[in-house]
Every structure is written in structure tokens, then in C-alpha cells.
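Translate structure to sequence.
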């Protein structure tokens, strides 16, 4: 489907409010909002509740702007992939020009307002994050290298650092560790999906690792990244944002995640196809709650710390 045909179909359809919300990728935005909130609350500098609310709102808008720009640029491959062909642009409900205008407008608004509400550094950091996701990942890496999801995953890992920057005006070891939690989690999360959705990436011509290096290599990479992720996740427990509760959560989750990665590594395609990729799908479902539970534990530690119950 060409860009022109997509635009023509959109002009023939009637976009609803929900279609414009869908452009903002609300599921992705929810992770952005939550990790940014945890970064803000876990920071050692208190933030006025109203400023905190405004900051998280503008970070959410910035995350939505990134989603709209991504859908604008990727509308051609979204139309080919089963997982994405129902999105507003390829489905003909919203035009590409509309998506681009919305993404650009929300990008400028969110960055300027965050700088005014919190500090200039956080506003610039949000602008860099949007640029990284929309340009570095979407326009460059996604279609040019099998390391697309590895390097591009940084965009989704920046929000907790932005939240921390809202409170402190800078960066610290703790905020970098929160970044690494998301950054190292992203490849095994998406590679597990790619193992049982490979035809989508083949059809769209996206050089996902499963396409360029094959599934056995992808299974090895999942194990390697999961092992590195476990070291980061458990090590975070012994910093100022960790504590006994976080350590318990990290030990249990990473034991389960590592066990799943080992099971994936030991399988071949005949075994996977025989049970409809049951192990890979189970690992992917676990990955959906993995990051949330780690950041929830950091949040609880931060909330309990003033009462002498959180932290070490």
C-alpha cells in the first residue's frame, strides 16, 4: 500500500476521537508514565505535587507525540504486518499528514511545558528522547540493522531518567540503573515476540534478528541479554533506590526470567512449532509484567523510606 493510497483512504474515512488516541500508542505511553513517575518519586529531592503532576502529564504527552511520529513514518510497513494493519493510518481512518502534524505539535508543546514546569534540563531531555525514537530509531535503525531494537530501546528507557531529572535537574548512578533496567529488558522482550511473529517482519522487510541471523541466533541472544539484565536488576537492589522488598522481587522475577530464557535457548524450531511456540509466548507474557513489577518495587521502597520502612 503506497503513501498516496493510505492518504486517500483516510480522506474517505471518518476518524473518531479514539483513533487519535490510538496514534499516541497508549499502551506504550502507560509504561512511559509509570517509569517516569517512579524516577521522580525515587529521586532524593522532593517535588511539589502539582509540579510533579504537570511534569508527568507533559512526559506522557511527549511519549504520545513519539508514537504519532512513529505511526506516521511506519504507515507503509504497518499496512503489511498483521499485528499493526488495524492501526488508524493503514486502516484508512487517519491521514498521514494529520498524524505528522499531531506528532510535531505535541512534541513542541510537551518539551516547552516540561521545561517551564520543572527545569530546562528535563525539557531538553524529553526533546532528545522524542528525537531519538522518531528519527534515530524509527527513521534510521529500524529498517537498517538487526540491532534496531537494541539501540532503539534506549528511547523507551529514558523516561525514568527524565522523571529523576525533573526532581534533581541532572543524572545519577541510580537513574542510569533504572535506564538500564528497561534498556536491557527491551531486546529479549521483542525478540521473544519476533520468534512467533517472524512472518510479519519478513513481509515488511524489517531486519529483525530472527530475519537476518535466524532463530537459533535469536535464542542465544535472548539468553545472553537476560543474564546481563539479571545482573543489573539484582545489583540495583543494593543502591539507594533498592531495599529488601526490591531485592526479593528481583530475585524471584529474574530466576523465572532466566529459567524461561534457558528453556528458549534449548529449543529448536521443530520443538517450538510442535507446541505452537508455547514456551516463547509464556516468556513474552512474563516480560510484560517484569519491568512493571521491578519499578513498582522501587516505588514502594521510595514511599516507605520516609517512615523508616524502605531501603537499607
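Result:
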Amino acid at each position: 500500500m503506497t503513501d498516496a493510497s493510505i492518504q486517500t483512504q483516510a480522506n474517505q474515512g471518518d476518524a473518531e476521537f479514539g483513533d487519535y488516541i490510538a496514534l499516541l500508542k497508549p499502551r506504550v505511553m502507560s509504561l512511559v508514565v509509570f517509569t517516569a513517575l517512579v524516577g521522580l518519586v525515587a529521586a532524593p529531592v522532593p517535588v511539589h505535587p502539582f509540579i510533579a503532576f504537570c511534569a508527568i502529564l507533559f512526559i506522557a504527552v511527549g511519549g504520545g507525540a513519539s508514537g504519532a511520529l512513529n505511526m506516521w513514518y511506519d504507515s507503509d510497513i504497518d499496512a503489511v504486518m498483521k499485528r499493526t494493519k488495524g492501526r488508524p493510518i493503514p486502516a484508512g481512518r487517519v491521514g498521514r499528514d494529520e498524524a505528522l502534524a499531531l506528532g510535531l505539535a505535541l512534541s513542541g508543546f510537551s518539551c516547552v511545558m516540561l521545561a517551564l514546569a520543572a527545569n530546562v534540563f528535563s525539557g531538553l531531555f524529553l526533546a532528545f528522547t522524542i528525537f531519538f525514537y522518531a528519527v534515530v530509531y524509527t527513521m534510521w535503525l529500524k529498517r537498517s540493522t538487526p540491532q534496531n531494537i537494541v539501540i532503539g530501546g534506549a528511547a523507551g528507557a529514558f523516561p525514568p531518567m527524565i522523571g529523576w531529572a525533573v526532581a534533581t535537574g541532572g543524572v545519577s548512578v541510580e537513574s542510569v540503573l533504572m535506564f538500564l533496567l528497561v534498556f536491557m529488558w527491551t531486546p529479549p522482550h521483542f525478540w521473544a515476540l519476533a520468534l512467533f511473529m517472524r512472518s510479519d517482519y519478513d513481509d515488511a522487510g524489517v531486519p529483525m534478528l530472527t530475519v537476518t541471523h535466524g532463530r537459533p541466533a535469536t535464542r542465544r541472544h535472548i539468553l545472553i541479554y537476560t543474564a546481563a539484565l539479571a545482573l543489573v536488576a539484582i545489583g540495583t537492589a543494593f543502591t539507594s533506590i533498592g531495599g529488601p522488598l526490591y531485592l526479593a522481587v528481583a530475585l524471584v522475577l529474574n530466576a523465572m526470567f532466566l529459567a524461561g530464557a534457558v528453556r528458549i535457548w534449548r529449543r529448536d524450531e521443530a520443538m517450538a512449532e510442535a507446541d505452537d511456540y508455547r514456551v516463547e509466548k509464556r516468556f513474552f507474557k512474563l516480560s510484560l509484567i517484569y519491568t512493571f513489577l521491578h519499578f513498582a518495587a522501587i516505588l514502594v521502597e521510595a514511599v516507605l523510606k520516609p517512615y523508616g520502612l524502605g531501603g537499607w
